[in-house]
Amino acid sequence: MNNTAIAGNIVAMDEPCQSFPRIQKIRTELLLTPNSICLERPCLLKEFSKSKEGRISKNQHPFIRRAKALAYIFSNRQSHIYQDELIIGNMTSKRIAANYYPEGGSINILEDLFKLEKRQTPLKMSSKEKWKLFSIAMGSVFDSVGVKALLRPGRISHFLNFFRAKRYFVTEEAGIAHQVGGYHNVVHHGLIKAEKEAVSYLKSGKFFQGQPLTDDQIAFYQSVKITIKGICNMALNLAEKAEKRANSAGIAAKRKAELLEAAAACRHVPYRPARSFKQGLQACWLVHIAMNLEDFEQGLSFGRLDQILYPLYCQDIEQGKLTLESAIETLASFQLKTCETIPLYSDRIDRFFSGNGVAQGITLGGTDENGYDVTNELSGLFLNAFDHIRTREPALHVRVHKETPDWFLQKAVETVQLGCGKPSFFGDNSIVRALEGVGMTKAHARDYAIIGCVEMASQGRTYNSSDAALFNLPLCLELALNRGKQFASSGWYQPILGAKTSAISRMTCFEDVVKAFKHQVEDSVNEMVTVIGWLEDSYRIWRTTPVNSIITEGCMENGLDITWGSALYNLTSVQVAGLADAGDSLYALNKLVFEEKRYSLEELVKILKSNFKGFEILQEELINKFPRYGNGIAKADQMTQLAADIFSDTIRSHYNGREGQFIPGMYSMTCHIGFGQKTGALPNGRSAGYRLSNGLSPVDGSDRAGPTGALRSASSLDSSQWANGCALNMKFDKKSVQGKAGRLAMAGLFKTYFEQGGMQVQVNVLDTKMLQTAKNDPSAYPGLVVRVAGYCAYFNDLQPEVQDEIIERTVH
Fold first, then answer.
1. d(C-alpha 216, C-alpha 548), whole Å
2. Beta strands 168-170 and 424-427: pairing type?
3. How many CA atoms lie within 13 A of 600 on its CB side?
4. What is the pLDDT of residues 491-505, one digit of tens each?
5. For residue range 418-429, what is the model confidence (pLDDT) as tens digits?
6. Dihedrals φ, ψ of 43, to 5°?
7. Is the CB of residue 433 less than 8 Å from the CB of residue 758?
8. CA nearest neighbour of 545 among 212, 202, 251, 300
């Protein structure tokens, strides 16, 4: 097929393309459907625990106990098939809803129980459902992994620190998720391959080199059989539902044929290898549902679907079973399925993860294991399909390298021009280098895909808990300048939050400040790693993940669940918030105190404790006249590098309970807002309580040298340690980058950025006036999608502080 011809199919428009009426009907229905909470999963868990099989399983191996519970959920959940959809299978019992996970952090929603409809992201539930939610939540308090790990003698203070969320926020309390499973095996080999392997091991009783299976291995292979049977039951229930619907009175002939085709697919996949393009997508979706029901909904991603599905696509095209138009329509239907699930956050937690996004990633383009470009027609068709929906989900990611075809890069930029914040762009050179740095082979590193927002994994081989925690880096500088206390501490009782570092009167040079800063980072990281370790111990007993284990390389070979460290690559990842604020503050402090000697360190700290009261002229100078990261100024960028290295070196010095390394990432979701509210004034002029900088981005408004300056600063940083990625946000005025000239300019800008060592960049192409109107009148632009951090969200779903940040980001 002619790639150049495909490249011209996207047209920049203000509204989604109208060529597929069914796709527009589904999209409209999704946008109009209120969000809710699904209680089916916890009810089935409770039902299973009271059953005879459930009571027996309580005394069985954790692998078997967990597999039986999940298989019960898969086998007994309701099947729903919605009008017009081509890919079937419901994530919850409602059209759009959040699953409730008793084993995770879902209980936080009780904070909002009496204001569900009045939240920024309303949740619609009847009074009866609310009482049922309350009953489920209170009855399962002690089922949470977080409670099992932290509500124990000697750990209560850590439990309270988790809720304070000042120095760090541990997301592993809710679940691991954040995975790119081996969907290639699901599509091309089916689950039958893993089942046969499990049966073979159990029948022989032997492992490699004739070693007898251990009790743990026997239990694992039994859990594989149980889990696969449960997934197959779920698929068969869907098939029966589709067949019943197809044979109902008044069904149109075309719809009947589609439903029977979907039923046939569910009777075949994911147990057996897919025989067609549509079956390949159906197989991926069914396993994706199982992954979500097993763990929780965050960041569970599909990987390189353009590579995985391409052989089936070509086969169907050549045999005349598929046309370009039907392929796009099917892909659009598949992508719309990802819009049916949302996370369950209270308003308090939503400050840290605002926007209702779950970031189900699809990675496009890139190279093969030998470094040769493998961009294909399907890479472009995924973008074409998104043009027809322009929704919050899925997350689309484009890999860029020196041989990336111009047509594909321009097509990706043309999609960005639509104003939906997608796709994001990733530089293969920097990413492959970073992944090799944590032990991956070059071939496996080249087969990377994006998890959720911006995290990287060798698809189907990596278990890297890629969003284990988020870290407040600028707070460590505040603590370093006040002997482990926050500036706001006053009165006779001044609690120590961090390490008790030296008094500022003893800091005679900049190196002394850096030493204290590093000590605070180390102290905070040490406590955070300890908490994560306790959670990991609980996961191995109470929340194993057999579905994930079945589709991740290493687990079947080792005969152990993935939570026990059996994946080929085991990592734990922690992200930093406020990087640019930390770097700019180090630069300003050094310049004011040690280079120009305008203030003593004691005087500067006193100014910070007063939140610049009486020193507004100095604050304005710091904000508007001092060199800042994001303008291509080497000295300022070097301080940001220093802050990044202190964090990275500290994180990488730790290892998890799965014998894998901790790795850093430079992105912050919206934690930079939540953390900022709890952080004092900083030497770069930032006021106490104000939001911190976002990911790898400069402080809002400080990048005054245009987009090239911001990209030059970002690409100058050594990202070789950032094996969990980074997020660089940019915002362009919609009028200035439209048309062919704008497309070519942006494509050239990004290509140069990646050639110079850039790792990632994501763009909003928006009209600031439109955003302000949308904030004042949410009905003015329903369905407006914006890039928040590594993920996208509907603008109306965002907390007001996040809306303000997006409005105030520097417009290039």
1. 17
2. unpaired
3. 8
4. 556 789 999 999 999
5. 999 999 999 999
6. -65, -40
7. no
8. 300
